[in-house]
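hi! just following up on the protien thing from before. the input was this:
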Amino acid sequence: MTPAELKSLIRTVPDFPKEGILFRDITTLLAHGEGLTAAVEMIAKRADAVGAGAIAGLEARGFIFGAAVASMLMLGFVPVRKAGKLPVPAIGVDYALEYGEARLEIDPTLIDEGERIIIVDDLLATGGTALAAAQLLRQAGAVVDRALFVIDLPDLGGSQRLRDSGIEVEALMEFEGD
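and the predicted 3d structure came back as:
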């Protein structure tokens, strides 16, 4: 499948979660076996080309794509979790949301010092969550210089924010507007 064919599998839901927002729903891509496989293969090819040592997936939909990519490349997978979800001692970072704050945590024992970890997630909007994940992974000793997404919403500025932090960004598709 081509990126354009994958893009046609994304459902747009108007006025969700609030009026004026066009929500890009990946569940229609996830439910399409050929499309899901193609998306994972495309991301895996990009991660492999830049020498990924491990893949980090952001909770929750980044787990779907990240774990599949890691498995395909026979690499380890590092889940970047919401606060309080890990059963072992974790390190965390707080970050700003549009209306409040959130926290991400990882098990630092999963990361080798200097290991090149590629961040994988379904969607890049403002970049806040991906930036927090990169900060956390770097704190644990990882080299984080690349992030791969299924969808980028470039008008929201996340790609530029990540690039300004030394992280190259690639996405399988872009949607203009919110």
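The first strand starts at residue 11 and ends at 14.
The radius of gyration is 16 Å.
cheers
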